[in-house]
Amino acid sequence: MERVAFRAQTVVADVALAALAFALAFIIARSQAGLTLAELPGAAFIQLTAMYGTIAGLFALLFRRELSPWRYVSIPDALVLSRSALLTVGVFLLAVFVLNRAQGVPRSALFMAPLFQMAFSMGVRVARRALHERALESFSPLKTVTDRLSQAPTLLLIGPPSLADTYLRDVARSHDRTYTPVGIVSTEKRDVGQQVRGVCILDTLERLDEALAELRRWNRYPRAILFLEEPARLKGLTADQLGRLKNDGIRLLRLPSIVELPQHDSVTLLPMRDINIEELLARDPIELDRGAIAKLIRGRRVLITGAGGSIGAELCRQVAAFDCAHLTLLDISETSLFEIEREMRETFPHIPRKAILCDVRQAARLNAAFKTEKPDLVFHAAALKHVSVVEEHPCEGVLTNVVGTWNVTEAAKACGAGQMILISTDKAVDPTNVMGATKRMAEAVIQAQQSTGKGTRFSAVRFGNVLGSAGSVVPIFKSQIERGGPVTITHPEMQRFFMTIPEAAQLVLHATATSAEGERRDARLFLLEMGEPVRILDLARQMIALSGRTPGRDIDIEITGLRPGEKLTEALLDETESAVPCAPKVLEVITNSALRVTPAHLAHLEALATRGDEQEVRGALFSLVSQVRGEKPGAAPNLRVIARG
Predict the structure, then answer these.
(1) How far apart are CA 96 and CA 98, in angstroms?
(2) Which of 68, 408, 447, 534 is deepest in the core (most CB within 10 A)?
(3) Are strands 498-500 and 465-467 parallel, antiparallel or unpaired?
(4) Are 203 and 210 in contact (CB under 8 A)?
(5) What is residue 480's predicted lDDT score, i.e. its pLDDT?
(6) Which residues pair with 583 in a beta bridge?
(7) Which range, 224-228, 253-257, 633-637, is most confident?
(8) Which residues have CB under 8 Å from 181's CB, separation 6+?
(9) Is pLDDT above 50 for 637?
(10) What is the per-residue pLDDT across 110-166, written as a single tens digit (0 to 9) for each?
(11) Which residues have a catalytic role annotated?
């Protein structure tokens, strides 16, 4: 009822403004012609004014759905109001011509009336928006020095003027006074000197130091910097520069990425957050198609194994953000499961969910859980992933990564799941360690589940190292830097592919959407175009610089030597594989496995692992991997296997 009353008020206001516009235009036109209102019957003037206002009211009702609330008026609203004014005067002219051939109506009034109507209707809306956004407060030539000094902490914006305009408009609408914008550093030189909503574009990103020096001279040095784009997109920023800013006590902020947007659809001003150190590393972020992912997830039941891990937890967040019908969280770690379930409950209270404490090794327990939950989509992220740990415990690696994967595939088929997706790794390519070999066997398990008829579709997604995940180099380096060093790396020439946790999760979802398309029923293996690998030594130096210190002087870098099973470089494709593009930034791996893994192979491996015979397990595992890769059966594997000892 209040909404109807509000709309009625806006229509009445537009009618009154239109009538006022016509009356003013009529009076001016008559006076210019040397005539006065006294020479025209008062009833006629009132009738003409009422007729004009009534016609304007009809068009106000007709176009009301195209107009924004007054406090959010914009250029499209001005176009709608202009159209309404022109149509009003056109219909009015037709009406008075039919009635009395427009006698007594000055022609100039017909030109001025729509102009006045547009000016009045748009003017009151602009004034309403100015009041709502408190825009008049920024025009303060009489403001005292004390008033200026008592403002909120200063904020420098870095990014394109278009994004700065969007941010400043949202700040004004929400009456946010957390920070006071003092300047914009643009990505384009042609923008320098212009203003965006009263905030000056000081300089270009290449001259950031000069812009900061200028602000310091005017006692407006920023206490925070907001990156309007992802920092990795802003060419010209250096790790040393960012490190100096952090040492100056400047907070480095950014808006939520596109991955986080679904969680804030109802919020006008998206909340700023501190930048994670991995977001500052020099690499181009990856953007994937969200439309296909939304179509895949929305309204479906999803189960995620390893839900408390780095990738599993991010999958939970993104799946929930895409409005799945039900989310099942499955993990063997009580603490991890508790934390992700609590986060889902607080962040996505509207999403039905269930947390299940279960080990993927337990086939019967797993089958019972799948039968109860009846998932449409299964993401298998549960795994032992630390190379050194699995190298020391090969039996555990086989039981979790190989046998556990088989158990999940069988449970997915038994419950009638539409798709099951394995999270794999580049260490599965020409594996030189037990962890990589178990993940290669997990991929072979997926391929063994190939189906030519109806049933579950199986696929695997292979990608490189994930920045910021548990046990990755970034948190390790960060911890070492915080302790004052040294930062340890195993070899100066070691290189790795990197991506962020949200990007890794989006790749999984994107590849799943790709796998869901078409009539193909065969198991598919996907990987991401990850660009050039990053040298770990360069990464260490960058992170030290980002902390505001100097590598080699403030913090030492120590070379410790390769660990058992560790490679200098990783590859995303085996020498026996090829890849073809199947979606933007996503490739499909084409492989002809020389061996189809059978339940008998897995039963033998499981028996050896259950007995705890590590040497036998290691030998049997690499023998199977060599056959899967197409090497001669019985020959020594072309792998650098380093046994414990």
Answers:
(1) 5
(2) 408
(3) parallel
(4) yes
(5) 85
(6) 586
(7) 224-228
(8) 154, 155, 156, 157, 168, 171, 199
(9) no
(10) 888 888 888 888 888 888 767 755 555 554 444 444 444 446 788 888 888 888 888
(11) 427
What's the rounded Cα separation, in Å, for the pair 540 and 560?
14
Distance in angstroms (rounded) separating the CA atoms of residues 92 and 23: 13
Mean pLDDT of 428-456: 82
Residue 625 has pLDDT above 70, yes or no: yes
Enumerate residues 6+ apart whose C-beta is below 8 A from 262.
321, 322
3-state secondary structure of 326: strand
| 240 contacts: CB under 8 Å, gap ≥ 6 | 545
Q: Which two tokens stand for residue 469?
A: 């995940």
pLDDT digits (tens, 9 = 90+) for 470-524: 656 777 887 888 888 788 888 888 887 777 777 778 778 877 787 766 566 567 8
pLDDT at 275 over 70: no
Nearest residue to 169 (alpha-carbon basis) of 138, 201, 197: 197
- The CA dihedral of 10, 11, 16, 20, to the nearest 10 degrees, is 100
What does the radius of gyration of the chain's CA atoms come to, in whole angstroms?
A: 33
- Contact call for residues 463 and 527 (beta carbons, < 8 A): yes
Which residues, 6 or more positions from 237, have their beta carbon under 8 angstroms from its beta carbon?
Answer: 205, 208, 231, 280
The long-range contacts involving 337-344, CB below 8 angstroms and separated by at least 24 positions, are 337/307, 337/308, 339/308, 340/307, 340/308, 340/312, 340/313, 340/316, 343/313, 343/316, 343/317, 344/316, 344/317, 344/320
Rounded-to-integer distance, Cα 400 and Cα 384, Å:
7
Contact 398, 606 (CB under 8 A): yes
Output the CA torsion sign for 548, 551, 555, 559.
positive
Closest to 309 (Cα-Cα) out of 476, 441, 501 = 501
CB-based contacts of 614, cutoff 8 Å, min separation 6: 394, 395, 644
Mean pLDDT taken over the chain:
78
Q: Which of 461, 468, 385 is nearest to 423 (CA)?
A: 461
Structure tokens at 205: 């990103």
What per-residue confidence (pLDDT) applies to 295?
Answer: 84
- The pLDDT score that the predictor gives to residue 601 is 87
Those residues with Cβ within 8 angstroms of residue 575's Cβ, 6 or more apart along the chain or in another chain: 430
Q: What are 388-415's pLDDT values in tens digits?
A: 899 999 999 999 999 999 999 999 999 9
Given a contact cutoff of 8 angstroms between Cβ atoms, the answer to whether 361 and 400 are in contact is yes
Q: Which amino acid is at 640?
A: R
Q: What angle do CA 525, 526, 529 make, to 5 degrees?
A: 150
CB 447 within 8 A of CB 521: no
CA neighbor of 238 nearest in space, from 610, 479, 546, 604: 546
